[in-house]
TrEMBL record:
GO BP terms: positive regulation of translation; RNA processing
InterPro entries associated with the record: La_dom_prot (IPR045180), La_HTH (IPR006630), La_xRRM (IPR014886), Lupus_La (IPR002344), Nucleotide-bd_a/b_plait_sf (IPR012677), RBD_domain_sf (IPR035979), RRM_dom (IPR000504), WH-like_DNA-bd_sf (IPR036388)
Chief localization: nucleus
Protein name: Lupus La protein
CDD domains xrefs: RRM2_La (cd12541)
Top-level taxon of the source organism: Eukaryota
Lineage: Eukaryota, Choanoflagellata, Craspedida, Salpingoecidae, Salpingoeca
The entry's keywords: Nucleus, RNA-binding
HTH La-type RNA-binding domain span: 1-92
Amino acid sequence: MADQQAKIIKQVEYYFSDRNYPRDKFMQETAKKSDEQWIPLSTLLTFNKLKTITEDQDEVVAALKEAPNSVHFQLNESGDAIRRNPAKPIATQEELDQRTIYVKGFDPKTINVDTVASFFKEKGFEPEHVQIRKQFKTKKNKPSAFVQFATPEVAKQVVDTPLTLDDKDVEMHMKVDYLEMKSAMRNEYRQKKKQDQEEAQKSKMRETVTAVMDKDCVVHLAGVPDDTSREDLKDVFEEFGEVAWVDFARGETQGYVRYKTSGSAAAAVKAVQERETEINGSKPEVRMLQGEEETDVRMCERE
């Protein structure tokens, strides 16, 4: 097949491809004007890409008649109209993704559809479609592209074949695998960002709590009988000062008692230890919290 014929067939095939035809509103609207979805060939000759190849309708007709059976278009017998081949159902996006790969390793200054397509053709693989990826904000080219092949098997073969460009390995993944990988990376980034924000908030809260709180106000208890209640603890410890807060749940064996003023916690710990005070028949271990331990407990009150 002559080079000119091949270019014509390739361009018309793109117009009716799974990637373009379902999204081309003009072609869709034009096809609807015919009960059998025919589009005048003269209409295609107004498309810029085809016009750059030829504006001769007879040349186009002659080329399309030489097209292989695998193409997605169908020329009518008179050669003056064309349509999407009814025998080839339009692929879903999921089906297209299954035969598309992600490739990275091109120069963003020179990358384009032709350079990417030519790269794979030289390696023995014929792309059906090439989409150059763009920077979100600047819209400048990235050094990567999505490349669609005829079948998932061909796409997998491409990915499994080590390829180099300018003596450097080309990075390739199946598109679905790449998208899953990027999704996982984005989720990890969002989670880390959230954690960093939470840590920053906690750090700020810690500074605030440390600056305003009275120190040496918290007693920690361990070995408390599991049938003990908050009221039981309050009854024991309010002897040594006004209790502001009791952190304890029935069934637990440890908890905290905070006093409103400094000094009470130290007095309570000393007295309970010296008296060997029992709570519900058991002698708990008690100690006064200081520094970060006390700050951590006080922060729990604010959460």
